[in-house]
Amino acid sequence: MTGSTPSMTRVARPRTGTIRRRQTKRGTSYALRLFWRGRRIDHPIGGSWEGWTEERVEGERAYIAAQVERGEYVPPSAPPAQPPPAADQQTFGVPPFLWTSDG
User: Fold this and answer.
1) Burial class of 56 by CB neighbour count within 10 A (0 to 12, 13 to 18, 19+)
2) In what order do the strands lie in the sheet with 18-24?
3) Is residue 55 part of a domain?
4) Looking at residue 4, what DSSP letter applies?
5) pLDDT score of 59
6) In a domain, 103, yes or no
7) Could you list the residue range(s) of the whole structural domain that residue 60 is in?
8) Which residue among 2, 35, 58, 72 is least crowded, i.e. fewest CB within 10 A of its CB?
9) Is 35 inside any structural domain?
10) How far is the C-alpha of 19 from the C-alpha of 76, rounded, in Å?
11) What is the CA angle 42-25-34, rounded to 5?
């Protein structure tokens, strides 16, 4: 094939994930950014104040990348919403005149 340019083949992005670090008042916060089923997922890991180190985060990244490769990965979900207070439970939203009524 002299005189021709080599053909470019598309290669899928490796599913290894990227470690994202953010400095906070408490220390370094770690998260993973990875692609899963065509979506970008931000997977929070933890912070240095919780005992996370670069080595531990790298191990977690490898573990999650292996889960993605095996098809076992489940992205983190949002924390469950707090249920509304019961009707008979008084909250700070109760108007003060209900507390002082002579009933």
Assistant:
1) middle
2) 18-24, 27-36, 39-47
3) yes
4) S
5) 94
6) no
7) 18-70
8) 2
9) yes
10) 16
11) 10
* C-alpha separations of 68 from 37, 87, 89 in Å: 9, 45, 45
* Single-letter code of the amino acid located at 64: I
Reply yes or no on whether the pLDDT at 1 is more than 60. Answer: no
Q: What is the mean pLDDT of the chain?
A: 80
**For the segment 27-43, what is each residue's pLDDT rounded down to a tens digit?**
999 999 998 888 899 99
Residues 23 and 7 sit within 8 Å (Cβ to Cβ): no
Residue 17 has a pLDDT of: 84
3-class secondary structure, 89 = coil
Give the Cα-Cα-Cα angle 38, 61, 13 (nearest 5 degrees). Answer: 35
Taking the complete model, does pTM exceed 0.70, yes or no? no
Q: What are the DSSP calls for 7-52, one per residue?
A: PP---PPPTT-EEEEEEETTEEEEEEEEEETTEEEEEEEEEGGGT-
How many independent structural domains does the chain possess?
A: 1
Q: Which residue has the higher pLDDT, 65 or 6?
A: 65
What confidence tens digit (pLDDT) does each residue in 49-66 have?
999 999 999 999 999 999
How many Cβ atoms from other residues are within 10 Å of residue 64's Cβ? 22
